Amino acid sequence: MTGSIVSEQDGYVLTLTINNPDRRNAVSGVMLRHLVEILAAVRITEVRCVVLRGAGERAFCSGYDLSALPTGQGDAGQFDGPAQLLLASRAIADCPAPVLAAVKGACYGAGGELAIQADVRLVSDHVRLGMPPAKIGIVYPEDGISRFVQILGPGGTADLFFTGHTWDAGRLAAAGFADHVFADDVFFDSVQQHARQIAANAPLALSGLKKMIRAAGASGYSDEQIQEFARLRLQAFASDDYREGLGAMRDKRPPEFRGE
């Protein structure tokens, strides 16, 4: 698939755009690696705030490119999507500057994880967010689940993932996902104004505060748990339900799962 991460700096604000509008800004491993490289190069003396957004008006990010997903257990062992998404998530967390997710339009799957990993989430009043792994038959990576639980709590995370329902701006704000909701017609102007307000502050203070806030909310899994989660993911990729879920999504029809 085509697509890129476009980087543009204005003063101390760096805007990174997920640029794949023909696929509603779906991401690939190549795009995620590029995102990691850009974030790893950020220096707080030069960049005091990062804005992550999607190209155009339709979507922040519609998820991971379906054509790159594995077709079964044999391919799953070679599939680096979860690893690349994990690296991108950690790059957002490790970036010395605050990262704002500017979520306008559709936001699904990997897009939801990129947004939840940001320090602050700014959403349009017309936003639509959904996490559909259960609809496809995927056991979602633990790092993403952990961050969702930190922000939404266990019940909110369970409802979002178990149902696969799409949440609107009101539900996202009530659940704690949306830190600010801006009107759709002035959304990106409002985001830039917010970013400039942050970037006007002392860079070392911003970087230090980010580290402390992240540390306060961090939680981890044991090595045994991580190994078990990896086993569950491979088991899910090998299932008939996964192939059915993926096919149903591509065909835009309801899936018929059998638990095998």
Task: Throw out a few tags for this protein.
about 260 residues, alpha/beta, 9 strands, 6-stranded mixed β-sheet
Can you walk through the features of this model?
The chain has eleven helices and nine strands. By secondary structure, the chain is an alpha/beta fold. Helix 1 (29-40) runs parallel beside helix 3 (81-94) and helix 3 runs parallel beside helix 4. The chain is globular, with a radius of gyration of 18 Å.
Give the class from helix and strand content and strand pairing. Answer: alpha/beta
Counted by DSSP, the helix tally is: 11
Give helix and strand order, one letter per element, not per position. EEHEEHHEEHEEHHHEHHHH
- Got a strand count? 9
Shape: globular
Q: Estimate the strand proportion.
A: 15-25%
The order of strands across the largest sheet is 1-2-3-5-7-9
The value of Rg in angstroms is 18 Å
Low-confidence stretches: none
Write down the overall mean pLDDT.
89
Distance between the termini: 31 Å
Please give the largest β-sheet. 6 strands, mixed
Give the fraction of residues assigned to helices.
40-55%
